[in-house]
Amino acid sequence: MKNQFKNIALIAVFAILITSCSKKNDAPADQEVKTEQNDKVLAYIKSLGFTDGQIVSSGDRYVVDGDMVFDKNMEVPADNGQPKTEQYYNGYLVTAANNIRVKVDPSITSMAAEIDAAILQWNNVPNSKIKFVLTTGSTYDILIKVDNTIGSSTCGQAYLSTSNGKAGSVVWINQELIKNNSFAQRTRTITHEFGHTISFKHTNQSTSIDVPGVGGTDASSLMNGGQCGSGATVLSTKDKQATAALYPL
């Protein structure tokens, strides 16, 4: 009987050791998979024309050039993000561009007027089918919300449009940072971030690819980066031309 109990005890200890070893061995494998995924996303971001100096790791996301956001667990496009045409953009257009549903999170309802004004700017671009529409339903394309923790000099952040034809899903606004800006500048921040959700990169980014027929730099572009609280407050002529080129009626 003693031998039987001893054997059972040995089997139990052996089982625990096997389980413990398995857990220890699984951790590096999980980390290896995570590292491989991160490397793929980094390669994708760089394929869009961004440099190492523009890419910052922030938790489970990469923040690029100050306000463009990529999830580290995102599905990397099969073509690795190579642009399909020329533009100041990421190569992917929103399929249902004439009905981009925006939901306003309760955290930012105090900026409803600025959101309305930003939407009006994009919706009024001549010869373009872009149309943002507000919704209160559970089905939406973009959620706009407050995040006062995104940086001491970052007015807002947003996801870029995706390879599956969807708009960038979230816009974050640093309401605390911009609360003392003029109405026009607060609207500018929101208009700019909406631009990212429909594929636009920063016009003054040296690695950007020109829009067909609308190339070159543009000091008046609302999509210039690094101008939090001081940039253009209305879409420039070239901004509008680029929008119409990507999203023609």
From TrEMBL:
GO terms assigned for molecular function: metallopeptidase activity
Superkingdom of source: Bacteria
InterPro entries reported for this sequence: MetalloPept_cat_dom_sf, Peptidase_M10/M27/M57
Gene3D superfamilies: Collagenase (Catalytic Domain) (3.40.390.10)
Transmembrane annotation, as ranges: none
Pfam family, one: Peptidase_M57
Protein name: Dual-action HEIGH metallo-peptidase
Gene source species: Pedobacter caeni
